[in-house]
Amino acid sequence: MKTTMCTKGGAPRTSTIWLLAWLFLAVLGLNAGAAGGGTQTGGGIPPAPTELAPTGEEGNSLPVVADTHGLTFVGRLRELRVLALSLQGRGSIVIHRLGGGIVAVTLVGDYRLELDRAALVRTNLDVLFLGGVSFQNGLAFLQIGSSSPVTLDAARVPLPVARLAAERRAQGNLLNLDVLARGKSAHVTATFATDRVTLTQRIQ
Predict the structure, then answer these.
(1) Is 60 in contact with 101 (CB distance < 8 Å)?
(2) Residue 94: helix, strand or coil by DSSP?
(3) Which residue, of 31, 137, 159, 175, has the fewest CB within 10 Å?
(4) Inter-residue contact 179 to 129 (CB < 8 Å)
(5) Contact by Cβ (8 Å): 65, 47
(6) Per-residue pLDDT of the chain (204 residues; tens, 9 = 90+)
(7) R_g (Cα) of the chain, nearest Å
(8) CA separation (Å) from 66 to 54, 127, 129, 130, 180?
(9) What 3-state class would DSSP assign to 132?
(10) Of 29, 3, 21, nearest in space to 113 by CA
(11) How many domains, the chain?
(12) If we measure between CA atoms, which residue out of 191, 158, 178 comes closest to residue 55?
């Protein structure tokens, strides 16, 4: 099941979008056993998802939806609920049920998200950049700390946000991701404070 929440008309000041996303999850019954179907609040019928190989770092396969690209959070709903301190930005939020109580939440657009660092360390949350069709055949350049950038396929870029958060000495801007494709670019950063992790995303 896929839900798209469009927010292109304005930039929310607090975590309003995030809270609405969880409301939609509850209303749509994502914890129910029934599968199939979908909803898109922006109108129209969402494209059918396909499975992406290889699987994630924790063994989860992630569906690819044609127009879905951006920072993606994969985990259990109850874990995701306690993480977000604030969300500001413009774009849309795409929510997809993966089964087994696991959901994927993708931020498509320009966003600034603050996560509770301690809560993030306690979860099994996967964070990645999903390229989708917009970044098809593109390249991603991931830099961790002062290390040299690593070149990856833009289709799916795992981001070790939780791993960095678990290192107590990790402070400051420690993760930078640039994703480039024909006519499209994205920039993602992760900054670590003692109590929170701030993720920013800009897509052009």
Answers:
(1) no
(2) strand
(3) 137
(4) yes
(5) yes
(6) 555 555 544 444 444 555 555 544 443 443 333 333 333 333 222 233 333 222 334 334 454 445 699 999 999 888 888 888 898 999 999 988 888 889 999 999 999 999 999 999 999 999 999 999 999 999 999 999 999 999 999 999 999 999 999 999 999 999 999 999 999 999 999 999 999 999 999 999
(7) 16
(8) 18, 19, 14, 11, 17
(9) coil
(10) 21
(11) 1
(12) 158
Global pTM value: 0.73
Inter-CA distances, 190 with 101, 114, 129, 140, 167, Å: 27, 10, 12, 15, 14
- Taking the C-alpha atoms of residue 61 and residue 55, their distance in angstroms, rounded to an integer, is 4
**CA diameter of the chain:** 47
